[in-house]
Design brief:
Elements (H helix, E strand, L loop, with lengths): L2 E7 L6 E5 L4 H13 L4 E7 L4 E6 L6
Length: about 60
């Protein structure tokens, strides 16, 4: 199964789509959280397959 991540940012023109290397939904969420951490303007990450939304993760703004 292929997982994707849509990283939404404070700047709508900086929204990114990433294909994940994960093999299961939990690993996909972990990978999405790491990717979101690499983008300081990220506000959320939506994890999904080609057919199903798996989760929406939100940036920890207190840590910023």
């Amino acid at each position: 199964m292929t997982f994707f991540c849509l990283i939404e940012s404070e700047n709508p023109s900086a929204t990114r789509m990433e294909m994940l290397d994960a093999e299961c939904p939990l690993a996909a969420q972990d990978e999405a959280a790491r990717l979101m951490g690499r983008h300081p303007d990220a506000v959320s990450a939506v994890v999904f397959t080609t057919e199903t939304m798996i989760a929406t993760l939100y940036a920890d703004r207190a840590a910023a």
